[in-house]
Design goal:
Layout: E1 6-8, E2 14-16, E3 21-24, E4 32-35, H1 40-47, H2 54-64, H3 70-82, E5 86-88, H4 100-107, H5 116-124, E6 127-131, H6 137-147, E7 151-156, H7 180-191, E8 196-201, H8 207-211, E9 219-222, H9 230-242, E10 246-251, E11 255-261, H10 269-279, H11 283-292, H12 303-322, E12 334-337, E13 343-345
Parallel strand pairs: 6-7, 6-9, 7-8, 9-10
Antiparallel strand pairs: 1-5, 2-3, 3-4, 10-11, 11-12, 12-13
Helix pairs in contact: 4-5, 6-7, 6-12
Length: about 375
């Protein structure tokens, strides 16, 4: 490849261990050590400061090591790049100072052939629909405000209650009794005036309620969990019709789950129902049993646990949109254990194009499970 202003990524320290060995990086798992008896790589790494052009680096290296050719030096940079240590400087490139730490983080995932600034630029041009401003959504929106999407459209119908304040840290004591949408709009504008903020006071009860909110939207976050299961099926039906990806999140007692549906690529929520129907003989019995008792648990939410979940939701959204790293929740449930901080992915469910009544060509009447999704009066 051709280099312009290459440098060793400044997120990594460059230091000698002794006369023959040096390292780049000092974090477990991302530290690279070089056996460099002639000192060529050490000199090359130090010349790659982002101010020198590739031609200048070649010129100075040849002055020190006349036996080296331009091809030798380029291969040396290639080797450093293969180790994930090199980036282009892009002289004159500017970005809002508030996002520079994000760009530095994204550089970890970019080689010299990729532009780390483009990841943040994609975020800055993103239009997001956030459904719900409760325990999940209220914390999600604070993370989004820091990342700086172009627009956030927030939907909720509730008012702030004293019981919200232990985990919904977007709100203050003085906000009790106010609409969540009003306080969210004000707070996000105070946090990041560059973001266009829209709010809608509305309860989602059917597919059309969501579809009419999706104009101009790039991706949806579903942070609504009531009524259980039913609301995710409603949102799923809407995003499939609109052709817009959605990150779903939900919290249990001591664990949270995130899953992502990308229309016509991953299996959808109804595909998940089909997958369980096909492979778990007790799935329908459990579902019916749960619905029959009309289980209405008290609020179960531990702030640090909710933060783990919401951080994962937002990170998955950024991965889906920018592909800075591989998403963990595509057509699968990514589960976070609040108790010990561990996480894992469940088995991926496929897209049942022939069977699914929502994202495929199936008939809803062929599958028993869907008759139990009707909300009981």
């Amino acid at each position: 490849m051709k280099y312009h202003y290459p440098r060793i990524k400044p997120i990594y320290p460059l230091y000698k261990l002794n006369k023959k060995n040096f390292r780049v990086g000092a974090q477990l798992g991302i530290t690279t050590e070089f056996d460099d008896e002639k000192g060529q790589f050490w000199i090359l790494s130090n010349l790659m400061d982002g101010f020198r052009t590739f031609k200048q680096i070649v010129f100075e290296m040849k002055n020190i090591y006349p036996e080296l050719t331009s091809i030798d030096i380029e291969k040396g940079i290639d080797l450093l790049n293969e180790e994930g240590l090199v980036e282009e400087t892009y002289p004159g490139k500017t970005i809002d100072e508030r996002y520079i730490a994000n760009v530095n983080y994204f550089s970890r995932f970019c080689g010299a052939e990729k532009n780390r600034f483009e990841i943040q630029e994609k975020i800055n041009n993103l239009n997001i629909l956030l459904l719900g401003l409760g325990g999940g959504g209220s914390n999600i929106v604070t993370l989004l405000a820091g990342l700086g999407p172009k627009m956030i459209r927030m939907v909720d119908y509730d008012k702030i209650e004293p019981s919200n304040l232990g985990r919904q840290l977007l709100y203050r004591e003085k906000d009790v009794g106010e609409k969540k949408t009003d306080i969210a709009k004000r707070t996000v504008r105070e946090m990041n005036s560059q973001i266009s903020v829209e709010t809608i006071d509305k309860k989602i009860v059917e597919v059309e309620d969501v579809i009419e909110l999706t104009e101009g939207i790039d991706i949806v976050i579903c942070a609504i969990d009531e009524p259980p299961f039913i609301i995710h099926r409603i949102v799923n039906g809407a995003i499939i019709k609109a052709g817009i990806p959605c990150i779903f999140g939900a919290s249990q007692i001591s664990r949270g789950r995130v899953y992502t549906v990308i229309p016509n690529i991953t299996g959808c929520f109804d595909c998940m129902n089909l997958n369980f129907s096909k492979n778990d003989p007790k799935f329908i019995e459990q579902f019916v049993g749960f619905r029959e008792i009309k289980f209405a648990p008290p609020s179960i939410a531990y702030g640090p646990g909710i933060f783990q979940l919401t951080a994962s939701i937002v990170d998955e959204l950024i991965k889906v949109v920018t592909v800075y790293a591989e998403p963990k929740s595509l057509g699968t449930q990514f589960e976070i254990n609040y108790e010990d901080g561990s996480s894992f992915t469940h088995k991926t469910w496929p897209r049942f194009e022939d069977d699914c009544p929502t994202c495929g060509n199936g008939n809803i009447s062929d599958w028993e499970i869907f008759q139990y999704y009707k909300e009981k009066k």
